[in-house]
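ok so i was messing around last nite and threw this chain in just to see what happens. nothing serious, just curious
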Amino acid sequence: MNRDLTAGNPEKVLWQFCLPLFGSIIFQQLYNIADSWVAGRFIGESALAAVGNSYEVTLIFIAFAFGCNMGCSVIVSRLFGKKDYTSMKTAVSTSVITSAAVCALLMLCGIVGSDLLLSLIRTPTEVYSDSKLYLDIYVWGLPFVFFYNIATGIFSALGDSKTPFFFLVVSSLSNIAVDILFVHSLHMGVAGVAWATFLCQGVSCILAVTAVALRLRRIKTEDTPALFDRRLLGKFAVIAVPSVLQQSFISVGNIIIQGVINGFGAGVMAGYSAGVKLNNLVITSFSTIGNGISNYTSQNIGAGKISRVKEGFKAGIKLMLCISLPIFVIYMIFPQTLVSFFLNAPSAEALRSATLYLRILAPFYFVIPAKLVADGILRGASQMNQFMISTFVDLILRVVLAALLAKTALGYVGIWLAWPVGWIIATVLSVHFYRRVNWRHFETWAL
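result:
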């Protein structure tokens, strides 16, 4: 059901809205975790390295889908909070048309340029063919990724975080079962991993799009909504383009880092592939809560309730810190057990590199929540310049330090150390920008 985020105790509202989002991203990440687990356990360490290698490239495509999600979600939530339902529906159709065009262009680039992308990240010969096979199949499933993201963005804008969660539970568990069927029973190898993801993402997309269409149909409007609006496209682009650039540059940075890691051999590659999946599970979960805070912020700005935004900042940090504590304990005490989940008889190098990666990053899960909550509010308030600055500082520091420290006696451990440095400095910047926002401007602001 639709939920008004502009009424009720802000802390209670955010917890009720964001916890299903957190659950959703956990199951969303099961797609990639299942792929890595099946590849590592039933095919081998090289297959895990291939899937992890391709994953860094797929993040570029996901960046565009995420940007479209945020552009649609922030604008729709603002109009929903303002109760301008005619413009809201026009914003939805404008976002869908724009996203379809972007998706078609990316598919063309992926089909034509997969060899170039894999060469740029110095993909080793022994995993090249499997990496390309996985990537080629993934590209054909991009429409599912895009339209699923648009649908979930609309649900979030309407204050409904539970419906997408139920879809993801079913599709993610199905993905694990189909992964095992295709790889273990039908012996399809890496292709089986890719096709399982393709099919289950398709099911998620169809269910989500159908449900959101029915939900929108039940919202009555006084006038017939226009199919496309250039003004709303501009508002969409103000949020979507920086979000795409943010995620794209992060992905490009990760690809550069992946290229540095590839120079240390398949063992470190496999260890990093397992470790980064576990780290991404945390960061993506926190980022998703930050996206929910963007919806909360946008709805309240649309309703003219600025004081609730400031209360949401404190509530968001408290929520993320509560989630950080058990993750920190598990990652510090049981890293080898977690890594072994992905690898069958892992090499000593793979196990050591992944364990060090998790133990270096885990303490800083208490730092990054402040950045992601501040970023969520900045994005919801359309303060995209400040949002981009902190993101780029984090990325540039991480890439430069990874490249430099990898050449020292620290080796690949130096690459792992680049993450906390970037996080700390970017957190200071994001919180500073949040505190500098002129909230009086929004008291008379209109979309």
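not much to say yet. The radius of gyration is 21 Å.
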